[in-house]
Amino acid sequence: MANKKWQIASPKIAAFLDDLLKTHRVFAPVKRDGLISFEPISEGDEALLDESPNSRRAPKEMFFPRSETLFAYEEGEITVVPLPDERRVVFGVRPCDARSLILLDKVFDAPDYQDPYYVGRRKNTVLIGLGCNHPLSTCFCTAVGGGPFAVDGLDLLFTNLGDRYLVEAITERGEALVADSPYFREAAPADVSLKAEIAARAEQAVSGPSVEGVKEQLDTMYDDPFWDELHEKCLGCAVCTYLCPTCHCFDIVDEAVNAQGQRVRNWDSCQFPLFTLHASGHNPRPSGKERMRQRVMHKFRYFVENFGEVACVGCGRCVRECPVNMDLREVLNAIRSRKS
Description:
Helix content: 25-40%
Strand order of the largest sheet: 3-2-6-9-10-11-1-12
Largest sheet: 8 strands, mixed
């Protein structure tokens, strides 16, 4: 495991990204139309650095796109879409979003099933993380096993020290990305100490409900009246699932005219009534009650049963963007306090 540390002056980061653009496709957080999102950049100074909040949309869509063509066909002839093979760098990924990809790996790169589109993008992408000096009030990463400076899933971690950044190599391919760059020099002990102070303050600023015991509570709550009340103010808009970095429901449709068309995979949501509608007309989740129960159960019971971890990284997007202020942290607290 790589553990080398460097520092880079803040004004030099744009030049570093310019060098990466010569050999990689580079994605970074940018601000467009008032929103922060991860987009491909053509120049290093387009990247938005600290202290901006995390992007509204999770960078998972660079690995699991909102819509992608799997293959095309015409009169019985199939044209397969080439698998992803471009070399990519994603700069400025927050630790919570990097950790979400480890959870998605369990679904799309499992021992008995590998999605070639997702796996190809993951294999060819280097993740450069950006620590969270000032977590938002809606962040609760520490409650679900993460942290503002966690390194799970990252190749490099940048920490803003003011006029410079501390850069830590997490993997060998991360180390290789900066080893020969002229913009980095060896970190001083003072840099490492300052980073530790910043990280300690950030850790203290994050709070959230413990998920300990939530799975065990949910084991007995499938028919609990709790769900009757919980879903009542939900609009079913699915903004929580579309912005979530770990939600991965999808639908596959044929977009065709006569004998010509393409098969497309699109994001879907368990919060939509059509998601589980059978061809017979039967729907096992006919109301918001069943759909809300599914969302919570999947993240905190079923995923734990299948993979040993909760399917939540505490990014807080669902808390910030819910139009009716449904707070997942309050839901978890209510579950934990429920009497068996």
